[in-house]
Automatic annotation (TrEMBL):
Membrane disposition: Multi-pass membrane protein
Recorded GO MF terms: monoatomic ion channel activity
Broad class of the protein's primary localization: membrane
Name of the molecule in the record: Pore calcium channel 1-like
Lineage: Eukaryota, Metazoa, Chordata, Craniata, Vertebrata
Organism name: Podarcis lilfordi (Lilford's wall lizard)
Domain of life: Eukaryota
One GO cellular component term noted in the UniProt record for this chain: membrane
Length: 668
């Protein structure tokens, strides 16, 4: 029976393959699925089949599609592989590996090369161990055909080679380049834990063929209009506001016209031509209508439609695989009851306890009543397949507790004045009253802090908020008030307590004459403003919007991970290209070359006059800030021109590529 289990692989059939009936090859061995388990299998075999079934259900619940060997040893290793501590450790070392860029040249805080290199080797050992563990639970032929595993192994090897070569060059006092650093996000993408980020990448990759033709047509339009601009304005001796020749170089025209599509240099780019003749503005108006409004709208529509189509296919595939996993689990546990196969109630309960050990007994009984509506003592196939979806439904269990004060001082708590007070706190007028207080507080926040009256008023408002919290805790049972689903109560209390501590600390420090720090005061100001968010909970429409935003946080985190990968790669590449080219000497620096960011090539340029010196690639933190500014789009051409001046005109391709990848593809 064990050898039969080893021959089976927990991998679903691809979409489009017809589902096999229970008696077909997809069915587990007869000894596991045919007769009653008690008669056909021993306790050990029953436990093994139950563990395997639980693994299938767990995978179905979390939309996991990891092909694993079904032998008892592999199943136990698979449970260990998916344990939250193992996943947390993997993520920890992935982010340690990514964070090394903070401490490597060019660094935010420089550490010796030996420290960073040994840390990276440790991370690589953890990644290799994780991959080796995965190889122990996956059939060999499946493991070596998986592109993700090959990518991880190649990246580990390339990183080791890079470390050895860079270390040897460093010992020889030769400057080297850590060319493997942009590959670090591969670990974040390709480990099994990051399946959501992989799906997002896959959806974008599948969309590329359809949008390529639109993009090529768009670029053809830009190139054609650029050529027309060269012929129209190149020989008219026009000058830009900086006194440079206007539209005399074709490549510069292409860049300026591409920037115009993003509207970042409008109307500056057309003003020399517009000043020369009113009619020339028609050229730019037609260009903007065609490329900014028509092409970008078509591009957005194509991206959206194709992404939606591939996302639907992805969801359909996930739904298919979820059903296959649940059928596999059902086939392992089923017994014949009259004319149909079913799962007995006791086996079903043991399965649910394995899959979701943290849910309460009442929650488990509720699931059973849903799956076995007629209370026959067993669950049929149709109801069993729904279990994975039922486990994903959040069930809030409300336990009625007596208020501690009712137990300790029963007569006082239930007296007439106490009941009246509690009734007042529960009334909507109480909520409205504090909404008015919050609005009045908002007016005082905007007034001068140095005014003693305003300062004293802040203590009054803070006292009123503390009284509100105490009254609510007096009225409502504390465990119910601070339940996990009571977000606004937690938020309210946290903000008030933090504001109280910060205000007391600020007042205490003010009494000391040597105190001149603004940091604590800044925290107090922020906490005061955050209190205004409380009013959102009082307005139903606002509350619905906030709940929606909270619910889409997981999706936003997925695309946040996607953006992190792209930002990281571009930051590392940007540091290698532009490091040290632009320097920042501080806002109050009197050094002469601080006026042009330490590089004569930037003298009298828009970049230097705008004081963009701090926008540089001298460390990864500054690089992320620059890339964020590029994402916002405004003035991104000034940044691109500045870095092109200190390196080469080809550097503009870096900024154009980033704009295409992030702004046009990922954000849209």
């Amino acid at each position: 029976m064990e050898s039969a289990g080893r021959s089976r692989v927990g991998i679903p059939q691809p979409p489009g393959v017809q589902e096999q009936p229970d008696s077909a090859a997809a069915q587990p061995p007869r000894s596991l699925a045919g007769a009653a388990p008690d008669a056909a299998m021993g306790d050990s075999a029953q436990e093994e089949s139950l563990l395997l079934a639980a693994a299938y259900v767990y995978d179905a619940q979390y939309n996991r599609n990891i092909p694993f060997d079904t032998s008892p040893r592999a199943v136990r290793l698979y449970y260990l592989y998916n344990h939250w501590t193992m996943q947390a450790a993997t993520y920890f070392f992935i982010f340690v590996d990514l964070a090394l860029a903070l401490f490597e040249e060019p660094a935010v805080y420089l550490l010796p090369f030996l420290v960073t290199s040994l840390t990276e080797v440790l991370c690589l050992l953890v990644f290799f161990g994780r991959l080796f563990h995965f190889a122990q639970v996956t059939p060999r032929d499946v493991f070596w055909k998986d592109t993700k595993n090959i990518c991880i192994m190649i990246t580990i090897l390339m990183t080791l080679v890079d470390l050895i070569v860079f270390g040897a060059l460093r010992i020889s006092s030769i400057r080297g380049v850590r060319w493997s650093r942009p590959l670090r996000p591969i670990f974040l993408i390709n480990f099994a834990e990051s399946r959501q980020i992989r799906r997002a990448f896959r959806s974008i990759r599948n969309t590329l063929p359809e949008i390529t033709y639109v993009f090529l047509l768009f670029m053809f339009s830009v190139l054609m209009f650029s050529l027309m601009a060269l012929k129209l304005f190149g020989d008219r001796n026009l000058k830009t506001v900086e006194g440079l020749p206007y539209f005399s170089n074709y490549l510069e025209i292409v860049f300026d016209m591409y920037v115009l599509v993003t509207t970042a240099n409008s109307p500056d780019v057309m003003m020399p031509a517009y000043d020369f003749s009113w009619w020339y503005c028609l050229f730019f108006i037609v260009y903007v209508i065609i490329n900014t409004y028509i092409f970008m709208s078509v591009f957005l529509a194509v991206v959206y439609n194709n992404y939606r189509k591939h996302l639907k296919n992805e969801i359909r595939k996930l739904a298919y695989m979820k059903r296959r996993k649940m059928i596999e689990a059902f086939n392992l546990l089923k017994v014949k009851e009259e004319a149909e196969f079913v799962v007995k109630e006791d086996r079903w309960k043991r399965l649910v306890k394995l899959v979701a050990p943290d849910i309460s007994t009442s929650h488990r009984e509720l699931l059973l009543r849903i799956c076995d509506e007629e209370q026959k003592g067993f669950v049929d196939k149709k109801s069993f397949v729904r279990l994975a979806d039922l486990l994903n439904i959040q069930v809030i269990t409300m336990k009625l507790h007596s208020h501690p004060l009712e137990v300790w001082i029963h007569q006082v708590y239930n007296s007439a004045p106490s009941l009246l007070l509690r009734k007042m706190v529960q009334h909507k007028v109480f909520v409205w009253m504090y909404d008015v207080i919050i609005l009045i507080n908002a007016v005082f926040i905007a007034l001068d802090e140095e005014n003693p009256l305003i300062s004293y008023a802040e203590w009054v408002f803070l006292s009123l908020y503390i009284v509100e919290i105490l009254l609510k805790l007096y009225t409502y049972e504390p465990r119910t008030f601070f339940a996990r689903n009571q977000f606004w109560n937690w938020f309210d209390t946290s903000i008030i307590l933090a504001a109280l501590i910060a205000t007391v600390l600020n007042t205490t420090l003010k009494s000391v004459t040597v105190y001149n720090s603004q940091q604590v005061l800044d925290i107090v100001f922020i906490l005061r403003v955050l209190r205004l968010i409380r009013i959102i909970d009082s307005i139903q429409r606002f509350r619905v919007i906030m709940t929606t935003l909270i619910n889409i946080v997981p999706t936003m985190l997925t695309f946040g991970g996607l953006a992190l990968v792209v930002y990281y790669v571009f930051s590392i590449i940007g540091m290698e290209i532009f490091h040290g080219r632009v320097q920042f000497f501080g806002g109050n620096s009197t050094v002469q070359h601080a006026l042009y960011c330490g590089n004569p090539a930037l003298k009298d340029t828009t970049f230097a006059r705008a004081k963009y010196c701090k926008n540089n690639f001298n460390d990864i933190a500054s690089s992320f800030v620059v890339l964020m500014e590029l994402t916002v789009v405004n003035q991104w051409h000034v940044l691109a021109n500045g870095f092109a001046l200190v390196t080469h005109e080809a550097a503009k391709l870096y900024f154009i590529t980033f704009h295409i990848v992030v702004v046009i593809m990922i954000i849209k």
